[in-house]
Amino acid sequence: MTKINIRGIYFDNIDMHEALVLAENAMTGETIKTVFTPNAEIAQLAAEQKEIKNLLNRADILLPDGAGVVLASKILKTPLKEKVAGVEFGENILALAAEKGYPVYFLGGKPTVAELAAQKMKEKYPALSIVGMHDGYFLKNGAENDAIIRNINESGAKILFVCLGAPAQEQWIDANKNRFVSVRLVMGLGGSLDVYAGTVRRAPKIFIRMHLEWFYRLCKEPRRIGRMMKLPKYIIGTVKDSRR
Ligand code: UDP
Question: Which residue of 65, 101, 173, 242 has the smallest Cβ count within 10 Å?
Fold first, then answer.
């Protein structure tokens, strides 16, 4: 498997199927594997802040979750195979967990979102075992954080979903990944639990096909405009880089 350097971030050049194979291999490994799924907003943040870039590059598996990142890879003439959306990857992992009996823990979202996501996903994948969950509004260090780590370890989870928004989830995973006992796969998956719970809807397929999922999200949540301005900045920066 090859990594492709897109403006300082080393993305895995793999499609969804290959990403799932890597994830499945992680389940039988000796050590924990981390998965981050940066989109163009976070990639731009990484272009601006070295510590975010280094943080992202410490992931074992880096998936391009955004049309913007794939476009940048084409502009730089080192095209990535495809966008691998974190929310879809996460659901495929749930299907795999149900099939193979891997216990799952959901961390993140507003109170009740993880419960609702667990309920909906169990309806869809009856064999799925969700062994624990916690909302994402807790102090990210100190006693409260320690209690959550203990709870995850006591649950025996092998797969951990961390949905705290970026880059908080990547920072949390990086800071805590060596404290897990049974977890073999930990993933930063943004607002995925909201989608599984049904509290946030993903864009209709036509928007996804036309690479306009970002536009749908912007219309639904106009307050995202500030962070979304990073997308044009990212593309302009990429064009400048490609001319150098
Ligand atoms: N969130 C959380 N804890 C926090 C801040 C946010 O659990 O301290 C959750 C929030 O409820 C939402 C997710 O993180 O479910 C962020 O979703 P978003 O779609 O903004 O993800 P991003 O685009 O940042 O990856």
Answer: 101
CA neighbor of 64 nearest in space, from 48, 88, 29, 92: 88
- The lowest-confidence range among 30-34, 166-170, 212-216 is 212-216
- Residue 1 has what pLDDT? 67
130 within ligand 1 shell (Cβ under 6 A): no
**In angstroms, rounded to a whole number, what is the distance separating the alpha carbons of residues 38 and 65?**
6
Residue nearest ligand 1's atom 8 by CA: 137
pLDDT given for residue 228 in this prediction: 87
Query: What letter does residue 134 receive in the DSSP assignment?
Result: E
Among the atoms of ligand 1, which is closest to the Cα of residue 110? Answer: 11
Q: What average pLDDT does the segment 160-165 reach?
A: 98
- 46 lies in which domain range? 3-197
Q: Is residue 232 part of a domain?
A: no
Q: Ligand 1 centre from 223 Cα, in Å? A: 14
Whether residue 124 is contained in a domain is answered as: yes
